[in-house]
């Protein structure tokens, strides 16, 4: 008699009252914080809106974007070279790459930027004999910032690239070598394209990190966004307002970079669609997986030779 009655009972989900109470408390604290900031008479909100598009701020924004893009391009290229060197069978190249990574990952990026900026203290001139040039004329604030950011980023990117290369199945490399492909061509045509699936996501994070790290070059007056914002704020004692202006631009840039990263991951994140057709990565590289049944090479891999 009790069986039908038991089957008619409905499952009632647990009510997490503690979570709702915690959420309400957090929302209340955030609301109070926003209200206190918005109602603060020490901040001139009208100047924040009017100075977002000052020519000097736009110029600093351009320098920040240029530093970010140039540092990432040089960092990615240098990271690939260092990663290949570290994975090389040549002991000298492998040890040099390891020493490079140890040095640039083990010292703060701010210290590296300051060392490059003050390089003239160690080497007043660069070159040999009559080909020497003044160091300060070559290592400008922008040049010191670019060197510091790019060389530091290359050390981090090398580990990301190395992880991507090691993630590629060893059978892919063995199959390419069985077809007579050299190690260099195997790395270029077979390994690196497939490693991009692992490399791209953390590279997007590195781009955002480099974008925010460019603010450190303000200590050497490299003309970036933060440098320009501080210079404007120092004129009429609106430092806090100009810091908010810089923060708004940084938030906008990081948001755009995050959106681009998400789309890039979605575009290159899979090599095969669910229906077995070639995905975007396969169309880009011309590669397919080895047959799981026969283990034979596909025509796409054979054409790479």
Short description:
With 305 residues, the protein is mainly alpha-helical.
Structural overview:
The protein is mainly α. Helix content is 70%, strand content 1%. It has a single domain (47-271, 279-303), classed as MetI-like fold (Orthogonal Bundle), CATH 1.10.3720.10. It has a two-stranded antiparallel ribbon with strand order 1-2. It starts with a helix and ends with a helix.
Topology:
Elements: H1 2-7, H2 17-38, H3 45-50, H4 55-86, H5 91-106, H6 109-117, E1 125-126, E2 133-134, H7 135-138, H8 141-167, H9 170-178, H10 183-213, H11 225-236, H12 239-268, H13 280-285, H14 299-303
Antiparallel strand pairs: 1-2
Helix pairs in contact: 4-5, 4-8, 4-10, 4-11, 5-8, 6-8, 8-10, 9-10, 10-12, 11-12
CATH class placement: Mainly Alpha
Which fold name is given in CATH as the topology?
Answer: MetI-like fold
Oligomer: single chain
Would you identify the CATH H-level superfamily? MetI-like
Number of contiguous helices: 14
CATH architecture label: Orthogonal Bundle
Coarse morphology: flat
Largest sheet: spatial strand order: 1-2
Report on the biggest sheet.
2 strands, antiparallel
Tally of DSSP β-strands = 2
Residues in helix, %? over 70%
What is the averaged pLDDT score? 82
Over all CA atoms, what is the radius of gyration? 27 Å
Q: State the distance separating the first and last CA atoms.
A: 76 Å
The helix/strand order is HHHHHHEEHHHHHHHH
Uncertain runs are 271-305
How much of the sequence lies in strands comes to under 5%
Structural class: mainly alpha
Number of domains: 1
């Amino acid at each position: 008699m009790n069986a039908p009655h038991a089957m008619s009972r409905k499952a009632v989900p647990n009510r997490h009252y503690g979570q709702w109470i915690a959420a309400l408390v957090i929302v209340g604290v955030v609301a109070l914080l926003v209200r206190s900031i918005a109602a603060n008479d020490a901040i001139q909100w009208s100047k924040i809106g009017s100075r977002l598009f000052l020519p000097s701020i736009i110029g600093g924004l351009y320098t920040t974007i240029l530093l970010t893009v140039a540092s990432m391009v040089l960092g990615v290229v240098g990271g690939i070279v260092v990663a290949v060197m570290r994975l090389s069978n040549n002991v000298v190249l492998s040890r040099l790459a390891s020493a490079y990574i140890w040095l640039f990952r083990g010292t703060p990026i701010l210290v590296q930027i300051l060392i490059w900026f003050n390089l003239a203290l160690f080497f007043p001139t660069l070159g040999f004999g009559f080909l020497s040039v003044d160091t300060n004329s070559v290592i400008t604030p922008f040049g010191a910032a670019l060197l510091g950011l790019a060389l530091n980023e290359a050390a981090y990117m090398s580990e990301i690239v190395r992880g991507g290369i090691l993630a590629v199945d060893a059978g892919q490399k063995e199959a390419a070598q069985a077809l007579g492909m050299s190690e260099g061509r195997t790395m270029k045509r077979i390994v690196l394209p497939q490693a991009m699936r692992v490399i791209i996501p953390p590279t997007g994070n590195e781009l955002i990190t480099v974008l925010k790290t460019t603010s450190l070059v303000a200590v050497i007056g490299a003309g970036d966004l933060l440098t320009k914002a501080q210079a404007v704020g120092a004129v009429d004692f609106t430092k806090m307002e100009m810091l908010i202006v810089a923060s708004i631009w940084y938030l906008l840039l990081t948001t755009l970079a995050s959106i681009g990263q998400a789309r890039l991951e979605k575009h290159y994140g899979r090599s095969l669609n669910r229906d077995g057709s070639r995905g975007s990565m396969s169309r880009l590289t011309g590669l397919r997986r080895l047959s799981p049944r026969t283990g034979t090479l596909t025509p796409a891999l054979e054409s790479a030779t």
